[in-house]
Amino acid sequence: MPHYSGPLLTRDSADILRRAHDKGATKWQGSLDLGRSEAAVQLDAEGFTFRGQHYPWPGKLKDHTLYYWDGEEFCSISRFSGSLIKLVPTEWGAPTFEIDGIKMLPTSKLSPFEDARRKVELVAPAGKSLLDTCGGLGYFAACALEAGVGQIRSFEKNADVMWLRTLNPWSPDPDSAAAAAACTSATATSRSRSNRSPAIASMRSCTTRRASALPANCTRRCSTTISPASSARAAACSTTPARRTS
């Protein structure tokens, strides 16, 4: 699923837009993607226009919460399917996430993205192959790619956390135009691994298996990774109990 490209609002950012309009401004310059970029936002009595699309003014928003446009209204970026999974804004721009109110990434002293970058520096990944378990929002994988890793396979089995990634502009986007342009067709998985170059072989860590081959109480959930050597996607799959959500 491609990343969301609409506005991300917090209570503070929505209030800033409102106050600008109330003071008579018809345009506001700033970031509505958690600090990843700045854009000119047009303001009017009915709402605001961002990246060519008009949005109505949001209703009452809560603190400690991020909101996205779901096509009809601004909704909090959270899901509940056994555990409450929530994307949470920080003062640093890059968000953290919570599971049942427990913060998963450090934010008190530095950005969670910068924290991931420091951990990657300890590994010195240039030219190496890395396994990233519990990939979360993908910050470690993104920083490893930035640092010149030869190949990284990042696993995240929680489908709701993977959904958070599609709404988070700080998470790596394997469905970006650049990655898709170089992506090898899924039919390549049927070719013998012995006939592939190492870069091509790394692009997919598993092939599709019939549902009958899996235990009745299990489901397969996939996350994606990118190998900079091939600029392509890889599906990293795991088999997990169907009831497990975190």
Essential attributes:
alpha+beta, four-stranded antiparallel β-sheet, 20% helix, elongated, disordered C terminus
What features would you describe in this structure?
- The chain has 246 residues and is an alpha+beta fold.
- Helix content is 20%, strand content 28%.
- The protein has six helices and 15 strands.
- The chain has helices at residues 11-22, 112-123, 139-146, 159-167, 177-181, 198-201, and strands at residues 8-9, 27-30, 39-44, 47-50, 53-56, 67-69, 74-76, 78-80, 84-88, 96-99, 102-103, 129-132, 151-154, 218-227, 232-241.
- Strands 2-3-4-5 form a four-stranded antiparallel beta sheet, with helices on one face. Strands 8-9-10-11 form a four-stranded antiparallel beta sheet, covered by helices on one side. The protein has a three-stranded antiparallel beta sheet with strand order 1-6-7.
- A hairpin with a 4-residue loop joins strand 14 and strand 15 (232-241).
- Helix 2 packs across helix 3 (139-146).
- The longest helix has 12 residues, at 11-22.
- It starts with 7 loop residues before the first strand and ends in a 5-residue tail after the last strand.
- The relative contact order is 0.12.
- The model is unreliable at 178-246 (pLDDT under 50).
Oligomer: single chain
How much of the polypeptide forms β-strand, as a percent range? 25-35%
Give the end-to-end Cα distance, rounded to a whole number of Å.
21 Å
Inertia-based shape: elongated
Q: Strands of the largest sheet, in order across it?
A: 2-3-4-5
Instruction: Give the proportion of residues in helices.
Output: 10-25%
Could you state the order of secondary-structure elements as H and E?
EHEEEEEEEEEEHEHEHHHEE
Mean pLDDT: 78
State the low-pLDDT regions, or none.
Answer: 178-246
- Overall strand count: 15
Number of distinct helices: 6
What value does the Rg take, in angstroms? 20 Å
Structural class, by secondary structure, is alpha+beta
Q: Describe the largest sheet.
A: 4 strands, antiparallel
